[in-house]
Amino acid sequence: MSAIYRRELMSYFTSPIGYVFSAVFFAISGVCFTSSTIASGTTDSTAYFSMILLFFVILIPLLTMKLFSEEKKSGTEQLLLTSPVSLVGIIFAKFLAAFTLFAGTFTLSAMLNMKTLEGIAKEQENIISKMSVPTFIGCFAGVILIGGAFIAIGLFVSSLTENQIIAAVLSIGIFALMIASSVFAMSVENEVLRVVIKWFSVMDRFYNFQRGIFDFVSVIYYLSIITVFLFLTVRIYEKRRWE
Length: 243
Prior knowledge:
The protein has one domain. 77% of the residues lie in helices and 0% in strands. The chain has helices at residues 2-11, 16-38, 46-64, 69-74, 77-81, 87-123, 133-158, 164-185, 191-199, 207-210, 216-242.
């Protein structure tokens, strides 16, 4: 499994995808942080994290669209299916490679923003309110979990088609629905239907993290999404292995 993980992680940097993802992520993160935090003269970073989540709709598919689609297109999928590594190991290694690049890029971006916030708070301590470290950490944890959930979904979508563009478009549609469902639920009058729609909303469960509350129920929810979609991907390839 470690060999596949290293291969997948290195593949992001032997092609433009890894560099494009990192560059675009840092650019968007900088713009969101400047417009939501620095420009408003506050150390409250909750708006920044909410904005960056919206851009995950197009950022995460950059990482996931090639994970299995490329294997099918290049004809190397059969090598994976007949390798001595278990399907669970193969799929988890691919997920972990994408998650490593995402988490590493986001962590570095968040650390730079944290240092900027500290500098602002010291220079303008009479103007800017004290920085809330629990809120920052809570938001950070929530974004990491949502990113992991989106990567697992994108991995599953990539296993359904050999066309990377189709995989990206489908992933974008799913992520957009999961983010927008909380807003859509507000216009639904039927209570049962509203609860069902809100269950798919990743944003509803993010609100507690924004208040600095480490919500274990939400953590379980995000981890459950990761587990379910990795399991579904394993089932798809188990079926193909026997066909």
